[in-house]
Amino acid sequence: MPSLHTRVAAVLLLLSFPAAGETPRELADLSLEELSEIRVTSVSKFAEPLSQATAAIYVITADEIRRSGATTVPEALRLAPNLEVARLNAQQYTISSRGFNSVNASNKLLVLIDGRAAYTPFFSNAYWDQQQIMLADVDRIEVISGPGGTLYGANAMNGVVNIITRDAHATQRVLVDATAGTLARQGALRWGGKLGQAATRIYASGFDSGHTDLATGASGKDDWHGAQAGFRTDLAAGGSNLTLQGDAYRNVIDTPSGRRSGGNLLASWTRRISAESAASLQVYYDNQRRVDSGTSGGSATNLVHTFDIAGQQVVMFGPDHEVVWGIGHRAWKDEFTNTANPFVLVPRAERVNLTNIFAEDTIALRANLKLVLGSKFEYSTFSKWAAMPNGRLGWEFAPGHFAWVAVSRAVRVPSRLERDLTAPGIVDRSPDFRSEKLTAYEAGWRSTLSRDVSISLNAFYNRYSDLRTTKPNPLTVLPVTFGNGWEGHTYGVDAWGTYSPLRWWRLMTGVELLRKDFHLKPGERDIAGVQTVLGHDPGHQAFVRSYFDLPHDVELSVALRHIGALTDVRVPSYLEADARLSWHATPDLELTLAGQNLVHRRHAEASTPPTYYIPRNAYLGLRWQY
Question: Which segments in the chain show pLDDT lower than 50?
Answer without folding.
Answer: 1-28
